Amino acid sequence: MHLGLAGKARELKRKSLIGQAIAVVLGVQILFVGPFIAFSLPTATAQNLRAYAHNRALEVLPWLPSRWQARLTERFPDLLQPARDVRFSLYVPEAPLSVFVGYTLGSLLGLLSGLLFFIFGLIGPLFRVYPFASGGGLDYYTEPGFGYLIGCVVACWCVGRLTLKRRTSFRQALAILAGLAAIHLIGLAYLLGTCLTNCLIESATPLPDWQPWLSEEVRNLTWYPLPYDLIFSVILVGLGFPFRWLVNTLTAPDIAVKPKAQPRLEEI
Questions:
Q1: What are the contacts of 132-140 at 24+ separation with CB within 8 A?
Q2: By the 8 A CB rule, do 93 and 227 touch?
Q3: How far apart (Å, rounded) are the C-alpha atoms in residues 253 and 247?
Q4: Which member of 130, 166, 216, 264 has the greatest number of CB atoms within 10 A?
């Protein structure tokens, strides 16, 4: 009888392989959707964001009562200035989605999802499927953003690891910062390594000739999207708690079942 109870206890802790496979497939699909939902946002520079906020305020001002308009223009004289030019750039939320996948699936399943998406992006063009933002393929390593894709895989594991057993606000904030740091630091390191390889090995071009290209890529891939990466990562982690519970229920449905109290020894 005692062995039967021990077997039931082990059964309660057993995870569903089918549920885990479904969770990994869903994680791959989430990462796959990222490049296809790119949208235009104001380029994240202080001056450009101020100009964008100024234009939005000018749009709202005519809808307010005239008395409020007078007070606002008196307190904020800039509202009397005409609309300003605003630069927009395409934003691809692949980094926040990687944080979301790592948070909801955990370290192991999140890592598997990231790896499968990465491999699928390399071999997808062979089947006329192009998951990455610039297509994909075995020669995608020549793209400037290749290192950021590697960082996304690492971020899936890192975020899941840091929030494995603790979901406090501090842990969540730490996981977001660590995940984004992994993405952008690995991406920057890959960019720098690409420059050094091209300059010192392939073309023997002097390093200063590559500095404008490197500066432009750093701005476009890290400096401009990083504030939006942080904002959307916080939002997705905030929305991810019920999805995390759903994944836990899917992958280990028996854990939610409370085991019955064990009978006393004399009852056995």
A1: 132/35, 133/35, 133/38, 133/92, 133/94
A2: no
A3: 9
A4: 130
CA distance 55 to 47: 12
* Distance in angstroms (rounded) separating the CA atoms of residues 134 and 103: 26
> Are 28 and 70 part of one and the same domain?
no
Residue 253 to residue 14: CA distance in whole angstroms: 9
Q: Does 214 lie in the same domain as 230?
A: yes
Domain assignment present for 267:
no
User: What is the SS3 assignment for 265?
Assistant: coil
Distance CA 23, CA 249 (A): 11
Check residue 78 and report its DSSP letter.
G
> Which residues on adjacent β-strands are paired with residue 88?
42
Question: CA-to-CA distance for 64 and 182, rounded, in angstroms?
Answer: 45
Read off the pLDDT of residues 206-222 as tens digits, 9 standing for 90 and up.
555 677 878 888 999 99
Same domain, 181 and 54: no
Task: Supply the pTM of this predicted model.
Answer: 0.84
Taking the CA atoms of 207, 213, 216 and 217 in sequence, report the sign of the dihedral they define. Answer: negative
How do residues 55-87 score in pLDDT, each as one tens digit?
999 999 999 999 998 998 899 888 889 999 999
For residue 227, the enclosing domain spans: 23-40+92-252
